[in-house]
Design goal:
By secondary structure, this protein is an alpha+beta fold. Helix content is about 30%, strand content about 20%. The N terminus is likely disordered.
C-alpha cells in the first residue's frame, strides 16, 4: 500500500479484508453519528461492491468492499471530495492470541500454519512463578490485516483466534489512564487523598486518614484494581483490541454504547439494567395500569423512530420500556445491597425477542448495503 495519504491504494498482492475509513473533511461534522440508512444510501448509490457499513468511533464510518478494485475506486474517488469526505486505509496491524501446546516451537508453527492473513510475529506469553519465568500455552500473533481472522489452522488443526487485550495503562504521576509517567506533562496527584500538587509518598498523614478514590469516591486508593474505573478501562481496552481503533475512539464507542462484538449479549443486557428505583417482580402487579402501559409504549416508540434506527437503539428501547413501567406499574424502592437489580417487565421471552431483533437487523443492514 502506498505511504502517501492523498493517494492510498491497496496493492495488487494485498491479502486482507478490503476496508476503508471515511470521515468528513470538516472535522466539526460527526459522520460517525450520521443516520445509518442515509450513509448506506449515499455510499451504495455511488460505489459498487460494498459489503458492510458501520460506525467506527469518533466522526468516522468503516466501509468493507468485496474486492481490491472497488476499494481503490472509492479511496481516490472525486465523488468523496465533492461531498466533503476523505478516505484512508485503517491500521493494518492487529494482534490476536491462540492456545498452542508449550512444546510446539515457532519453527513448527510456521511450517504448518495456514492463515487467511499474513502472520508477521509469533510471541509465546510467559509468566513469573516462584521467581522463575514459565512459558504458557498462550501465543500472541501479529497479523498484517485490519481485522482478525476467526480461525487459523496448524497442520490442519483448527485454532480459534481471540483479540489480544492489553491491561489498562495508568499513569503513576497524574493517575489518569491512557499514558505512562514517562510521557506525562501533568502535575502529580496523590492516589491516597486524590489531592493535586503532591504524590502519595509526600502525603504526611497517609497512615492516619482513610483513602478516597479519585474516580469513584469510595474508600480505596485510586490505583486499586477493584475500582469501577479500572473495570471501565478494561472494557475500553477490549473495544480497542476487537474493533482495531484508537484509545480515544474506544472511549467514544463505550460512552455512546455503540454496537461492538467485544462484549457478549449477556454483558450488554446486564450493563443496561437500571441501578436505582429498581422494580421488583412481585410488587403491585394487580394494581398495574396495563392499557395505559401499552398506549404509552406505542406513543414513545412512534416518537423515537429515528433514535431506534441509530447505533444506540438498544439503550433507547430499554429506556422507553423502563420509564413507561415506572409510571404505569406501582413499585417500591428496595435496598440495593440486599436485593440484586431486576426489572418488572424483563423475562426470558424479552431476552429472546431482543436476540431475534438484533439478528434480523443485521440481515437487513447487510441486504441494504
Amino acid at each position: 500500500m502506498s505511504s502517501q495519504r492523498t493517494k492510498q491504494t491497496f496493492s495488487s498482492d494485498y491479502n486482507g479484508p478490503v476496508i476503508i475509513l471515511v470521515q468528513c473533511i470538516d472535522l466539526n461534522k460527526n459522520l460517525g453519528s450520521w443516520h445509518p440508512i442515509r450513509a448506506a444510501k449515499f455510499f451504495s448509490s455511488n460505489f459498487a461492491g460494498i459489503t458492510n457499513i458501520k460506525s467506527a468511533g469518533s466522526k468516522k464510518i468503516k466501509i468493507s468492499f468485496d474486492s481490491i478494485l472497488n476499494g481503490n475506486l472509492c479511496l481516490n474517488s472525486d465523488i468523496l471530495i465533492a461531498h466533503g469526505f476523505t478516505a484512508c486505509i485503517p491500521s493494518n496491524l492487529i494482534f490476536g492470541i491462540i492456545k498452542l501446546e508449550i512444546d510446539v516451537s515457532e519453527e513448527d508453527f510456521r511450517d504448518g500454519v495456514q492463515s487467511p492473513f499474513p502472520i508477521i510475529s509469533f510471541k509465546r506469553i510467559s509468566v513469573k512463578k516462584d521467581d522463575n519465568i514459565v512459558p504458557t500455552r498462550i501465543v500472541e500473533l501479529k497479523f498484517l490485516s485490519p481485522k482478525l481472522p476467526r480461525h487459523i489452522s496448524v497442520y490442519n488443526m483448527i485454532f480459534d483466534v481471540d483479540p489480544s487485550i492489553r491491561s489498562p495503562v495508568q499513569c503513576n504521576r497524574c493517575l489518569r489512564y491512557g499514558h505512562t509517567q514517562k510521557f506525562c506533562r501533568s502535575d502529580p496527584r496523590c492516589s491516597h487523598c486524590s489531592g493535586s500538587k503532591h504524590s502519595i509518598t509526600d502525603w504526611p498523614t497517609i497512615n492516619a486518614t482513610d483513602p478516597i478514590c479519585l474516580f469513584c469516591k469510595l474508600p480505596h486508593v485510586a490505583t486499586d484494581r477493584s475500582c469501577q474505573e479500572w473495570s471501565a478501562q478494561k472494557d475500553i481496552k477490549k473495544i480497542m483490541a476487537t474493533e482495531n481503533i484508537s484509545y480515544k475512539d474506544a472511549i467514544i464507542f463505550k460512552k455512546n454504547k455503540c454496537y461492538t462484538s467485544a462484549f457478549k449479549y449477556s454483558d450488554v443486557v446486564n450493563n443496561q439494567l437500571p441501578k436505582s428505583d429498581v422494580l421488583i417482580h412481585n410488587n403491585h402487579l394487580n394494581e398495574a395500569k396495563w392499557p395505559t402501559f401499552t398506549l404509552d409504549i406505542q406513543d414513545a416508540i412512534s416518537s423515537s423512530v429515528e433514535n431506534l434506527a441509530s447505533t444506540n437503539s438498544y439503550s433507547v428501547f430499554t429506556d422507553i420500556i423502563h420509564n413507561t413501567a415506572k409510571s404505569a406499574i406501582p413499585a417500591k424502592k428496595v435496598n440495593l445491597i440486599s436485593h440484586p437489580p431486576s426489572l418488572l417487565w424483563w423475562n426470558s421471552s424479552c431476552s429472546e425477542a431482543v436476540k431475534i431483533d438484533l439478528y434480523t437487523s443485521k440481515i437487513f443492514a447487510a441486504q441494504a448495503a
